[in-house]
Amino acid sequence: MPRLLNRSLLTLLLPLTAGVVHAFETVRVADGVYALVGDLGQRTPENLGHNMTSGFVVTAQGVVVIDTGASKLGAQAIHTAIRKITGWPVIYAINTGGQDHRWLGNDYFRRQGAKLVASAAGLADMHNRGAEQMAMTGRFLKDKFAGTVPAYPDVTFKDRYTLPVKGERIELIYTGGAHTPGDILVWLPQRSIVFAGDTVFVQRLLGVLPGGARRWIKSLEYLRDQLKPKIVVPGHGHVTDLNEALREAVAKRFADGAFDPVEVSQCLDQPCFKYLVNYDDLEFRSRNALAVAEELLATQSR
To answer: If 92 and its partner were Cys, which of 14, 64, 71, 143 is the partner (CB 3.0–4.6 Å)?
Structure first.
């Protein structure tokens, strides 16, 4: 599980706030690199569905957007934030995953001339759940969802892809998914900065989908052991680093003699996560633990 960065790094980063557009805060992470830190709660008309963290990178050739928002109006708000920083055009828009707020603003940015990029697994997830996500997000955003239409990526890749832009090396890395099957890492190796998308949650309890625990752990391990970034821009919450915990807690329950996934999910002690915004949702916590427990049990029974 992710935790907050050490105090010295937070002291360095958080005073660099540039302003607020709708329900997200524009935070300067480094020269030309910005995070758009949104609400920690649910999608609402007021936040335009931006209950996540996205961002953008200003290169010598133009702007690269990282996640396009949950609606046409959300994408416009992102573009407004960019224009407060630079007049450069948006040339690429990356979808770090197939969840609504990562890609439903695609149509807007395509109309601005941007090329859309995602993993092949992310594209498949968009097709599989697109109608469901349109309906769900429309219910949350109501009239603020008007004009939103799905637009699918122009460029997809299987494992790795380097954006052909000048002045900044931007590598897109697929390690098997995390919160959703198509989640990727956006890696800026020259700066040791990663936009982790929904591979990393901070300040908010993560949501483990059925079958997702092992792939999530694998992606976190890759981030920790291979990339070793100095700065992590998460998919939810403020700029941070990460630290894994949920899997060990569930594994300990099995070691203590609990072999039924339901028993594990009900007995799992998670007090170290009380600081997270949605910790009080017991059903949500139990569902996460159950998903992890089921995968561990399946692995141990092989």
So the answer is: 64
